[in-house]
Amino acid sequence: MFKAKLIENYELYTKRRKIALWLSLIPWPMINIFIWNNISVLVGVLLVIANIAFFIFLYKQNKLVKNTIGDKIIEISNLQLVISSPKEGKVNEFDLQVFDIIMVPKTFEIPDDNISTYSKSAIGNSINNYIRIKDSNTDLRFDFLLDSYYMISQLENILSKLSAKGINVVRE
Length: 172
What we know:
Helix 1 (11-25) crosses helix 4 and helix 2 runs antiparallel to helix 3 (41-69). This protein is an alpha+beta fold. It has helices at 11-25, 27-36, 41-69, 115-123, 149-164, and strands at 2-6, 73-76, 80-85, 89-95, 101-104, 130-134, 139-145, 169-171. The longest helix is centred in the N-terminal third of the chain and has 29 residues, at 41-69. The mean pLDDT is 80. Strand 3 (80-85) and strand 4 form a beta hairpin. It has 2 domains: 2-7 and 74-171, Roll (PH-domain like), CATH 2.30.29; 14-67. The chain is elongated. The chain has an 8-stranded mixed beta sheet.
């Protein structure tokens, strides 16, 4: 079974982009000035204080991002997709055999995992991990957050089992 936090508010992507931009632009000039120039102790202390203030700002922004996510969880098993909440229990339940097609991205990525994912976020190519289920009447998309490579392998195993059972799984 695969479980992940469901992204309920798409504002998360713009907030993550702002954090990535701030993280990539602000501290490096200050660090370079501090390291490569002969500066007075007072200026050095001021630069250290500015860096500390900057990282406190980033920490608070990350808290805001985490509050944007919400409390719903997506659970995917071999033939079921369930949206649940600690407060409400099962919110929605879908039988995956009923749908004509299941669409997922070509690759799943962990946000903020390395420099390349930060740079993707900073330039506006946000990391979208989702599952989209479609039939003639329904087109639903569920975005979720991945925390580990183990979660990715769980999801890949479930997708391969669904394909083996004859369910049309397409990579976009």
